[in-house]
Amino acid sequence: MLISLLIVEMAKNETVYKVEYLLLLEGDNITCTKVDSLLHLLQSDSDIVISENNKSATYRGNQSFDVDIDMGSAGQGKASGSIYFDMSFSCNSEADLNIFGDFLRSVRVVLSPLFPKNPDALQILRDDLSLYYRIKAYPLISEIENSMRRLITKFMQVNVGMGWTRERVPDEISKNKFKNEDTTFLHNVDFINLKELLLSQNYSKHKESLINNLKTSQKETFTKAEIESLIPVSNWDRYFSAKIKVDAEELDNDWTQLYELRCKVAHNRTFTSSDLTRTETLGKKVVIILEAAQQELDSIHVNEDEAQGIAEDAVLNSASAKELLEMFLGQWRGIERHVIKLANFVGDDPANYRNLADCVRGLESKGYIPGDTANEIGDLARVKNIIVHLDNKVSPEVIENHVGDLRRIANELFRIRMDRKYSLKKQTEKATKQ
Fold first, then answer.
1. Rounded to 5 degrees, what angle do the CA atoms 104, 109, 111 make?
2. pLDDT beyond 90 at 396
3. Better-predicted residue by pLDDT, 353 or 90
């Protein structure tokens, strides 16, 4: 859709590439008050020569570009002493666009002393040059993005399972990602988030149990494998780096640069010939890496525990800020349900407490919830209050980390209740036998 709109816009221009600037000058120190003065200022650059009729400019003795400059009064009532210059420059040949870009840079440099303290004084009203380069870049960016989607889609389907999106994506995410049956989860993941599925470093899903084992262990030394299991690692490092000799940090940096270039194209920003060259260079490099990774997929083996972790990380890393907030609040409601169920199960009526925090402390004092877990719930309750009332004060990265904490605590509360239930069952069976 975007590329078709770009082509339509360029078609309107036929063979004329036009760039239009609006320069607003205000205050008592305006040094350029006439069109003639502005034209003379442009010629202070020895590479620029204005024609006698002031309708064209020759640049570096070769290319000639059309020039059209108007001026007028600006400001409220047009009596403030402010003035504006409406400047249009046109190139009539695609072959001259590179030198046209150099000419425009020279124009902006020459004009910059007129507004030393206000860079917003010069506004771009039309930029066919950027449009031309954006059209050239769009297919390249599309190819890069599709290469990453192909790799991740096949990696997830083959190693995690065909139904991973339907089975493991929370409702808060799936309602936004699956708006119709023709879309898939990964096709609704933003460009920048695609790389997180491969390159984001995540802790082992068993990190907490590993840490607890290390804390309670009587061993004085630990193996390298035990220590390394606590180090966060990306899916790229875990499954691809040994086969594809490309550093994850380098690939991450390349993808981030491509994202910045993509944003320029998608949001109609200034896009230069050097931007196009960077897109071509980085794009070719990244596509070669991704295609090489695809060739290695058949040699990758993922166990069930790893598959579960990959699926959870994929959901978190692909979620938008709004979706992360919804996930956090959904997980928090799950904590509330588990606390209430545990209280009811042990005969400690939740209605006897003022709020959830009091209920948690009550269960802690009676030995049903460990002190560390109660403290974590209290900390997360404070985070929840900050998010709800001052959501702009909490970064998406922090929310994402706490979503994992909430899920872990919910599982712990469920296990506590199941252990109590199993213990009571055994006690009942023992009493019956006696």
1. 95
2. no
3. 90
Instruction: Judge whether 359 and 341 are in contact, CB under 8 Å.
Output: no
The CA distances from residue 102 to 17, 33, 88, 210, 271, in Å, are: 14, 26, 15, 60, 13
CA atoms lying within 13 Å on the CB side of residue 330: 13
Q: Compute CA distances 278 → 246, 275, 287, 399, 431, whole Å.
A: 19, 5, 14, 34, 77
CA dihedral over 302, 189, 315, 398, signed as positive or negative: positive
Across 36-45, 262-271, 368-377, 407-416, least confident range: 407-416
- If phi > 0 it is left, if psi is from -120 to 50 it is alpha, else beta; for residue 223 that is beta
Q: What is the distance between the alpha carbons of residues 261 and 240, in angstroms, rounded to a whole number?
A: 26
Secondary structure (3-state) at 161: coil
DSSP state of 394: S
pLDDT reported for residue 309: 64
Nearest residue to 205 via CA among 312, 114, 119, 277: 312
Counting Cβ atoms within 10 Å, is residue 116 exposed (0-12), middle (13-18) or buried (19+)?
Answer: exposed
Between 106 and 316, name the one with better pLDDT: 106
Q: Which amino acid is at 104?
A: L
Return the DSSP state at 363: H
272 or 298, which is more confident?
Answer: 272
- Cα–Cα distance, 315 to 169 (Å, whole number): 6
Between strands 48-50 and 122-127, the pairing is: unpaired
What whole-number distance in Å separates Cα of residue 23 and Cα of residue 87? 8
Q: How far apart are CA 132 and CA 110, in angstroms?
A: 25
Task: Name residue 105's amino acid.
Answer: R
**CB contact at 8 A, 236 and 198:** yes
Q: What global pTM score does this model have?
A: 0.64
Taking 50 as the threshold, does the pLDDT of residue 168 lie above it? no
Instruction: Beginning with the edge strand found earlier in the chain, give each strand of the sheet holding 82-91 in spatial order.
Output: 48-50, 56-59, 63-74, 82-91, 17-25, 122-127
8 Å CB contact between 327 and 403: yes
Taking the C-alpha atoms of residue 65 and residue 413, their distance in angstroms, rounded to an integer, is 73
